[in-house]
UniProtKB/TrEMBL annotation:
Keywords associated with the record: DNA-binding
Statement: the UniProt record of this protein carries the keyword DNA-binding: yes
GO BP field: phosphorelay signal transduction system; regulation of DNA-templated transcription
Protein name: OmpR/PhoB-type domain-containing protein
Domain OmpR/PhoB-type: 35-144
Matching Gene3D superfamilies: Winged helix-like DNA-binding domain superfamily/Winged helix DNA-binding domain (1.10.10.10)
Amino acid sequence: LKEKWIVQDKQLKAFKKMPGEGDISISERQSTDASPVVSLEPVLEISQRRSDRIIFLRKEVKITSRGFSLLYFLAQHKQEVVSYNSILDEIWEDDEDAIYTRIISHVYKFRRNILDAIGHNEDNTEKVKDIFKVISGRGVMLNISDEELQIN
């Protein structure tokens, strides 16, 4: 029996490869306790030093300064529905003409620019829509886990 090591729950654990099994990539294999394998690469990277871009699946995506502020605010409240009013108060605090359609417009621009960088296909479109969610009548949610998000 051969052993391979995987990173799981921030600890290294071994799993045994049975004779006759083909080579299986680490991301396709789970340990015997059936808990998920932790991805080593973040899906979304945000750098406070570079407010003109983000990194999504290792691809650079250009972003406006207002868009960056919105994304950073959503990242601070990831996996929460952030109300339109909270976003307007935080990001557009000095703009009395700001309305929720501006927020939605920025989210659609995020999606489009990310898909331009990573490629337009059905899987990518669904992944991006699932991460950048517009909740009708309520607000916006950045649906991403701690492991998938890196802020520095």
